Predict the structure.
Amino acid sequence: MSWRRGRRVVVLVVALGALAGAPAMAMAAPIAIGAYVPDFWEDPSLIDDYATEVGQMPAILLSYKRWDVRPFYPPELRQIDRRGALPMVSWEPWNTAGDSFRLGRIAAGRFDAYIRRSAREARAWGKPIMLRFAHEMNGDWEPWGRGALGAGSRNYVAAWRHLVTVFREEGADNVLWVWCANVNTGKLPFMQFYPGDEWVDWVGLDGFNWGNSIGWRSFSEVFAGSYEALAAETSKPILIAETGSGEEDGDKAAWVTSALLRELADFELVRAVVWFNSVDRSDFRVASSPSALAAFREGIALPRYSGGRAELLATPPVRVAGPVAAIPIPSGGYGAPSWLEELWRKLGDRLGAALWPLIGLLAAGLIAIVVTVTRRRRTVSAGA
């Protein structure tokens, strides 16, 4: 019996339980905690170092693969597998030189040799792989994103469906397709990029509390609206594929504690949370400060976060898509600066923006005065 057929048996059992009057069975599953650990593919001991640091091995290990490398590299997959984790490969259609593999050309089969070779390698591995293709497509910061040449929702959906079709033709049914958008901050709608439930196994969201000049937002403020939109349109299990909090202009430890001990309990459909343990404009590392690390260790030690690979693979879509309970937004307790601190920071930013030109004008004026005085002294000396 193949892995996916065995999974269908689990899905059927859970679905029958739901029909028998236990619809909450799918909701009771624990949440799996995963991580992005930079460079672990080059040095697998970094995974163990991270696990020691946070107190448990990640259930998901996230990596990024461009289209000029093998996305499913057996030595890397073996290192993940032997630690009991599930690989999630972010497959990004561009290369190291920055050249984009345009979505329309992917859909038209221009890169099928590479895609089929990758599908056969996935099939040869045989064990489950989560594959996150062209994530954050609703943003404009990636070469496959909104507004990029050859991008757009129509080409994105066509490219996605073509990839899934090729993998199915090659028998790579061990691949779990993860469709993942950036949270909608008000200008980044994403459902027009959704290829449909029959083409997707998981749906995901990326979102961060950036801190600094971008602002300090609770976990619920970051994810609530987008989570509710996803739940209304798809029955697929939901994961947070990238998240974290910066340190600047707030209390990161309080943010982590609020997210893990209080807020995530309201996101009943979320089955996994992957922490982006790196620096990207903000310091998202779990150990960016001793207090942040202590809060993270305490939070993920809860039974709620005991989900592992087995629970992830048994997660079935047994609910009907539709509205979910609105997520309450906390009014405090998540490390946000006081209104006075926030006002002071904003004033400082505005004054700073105006101050540098003023300093430049003053410096230019002083230089002009010095030059004028020096010339007059030379003129007086010459006249004497």
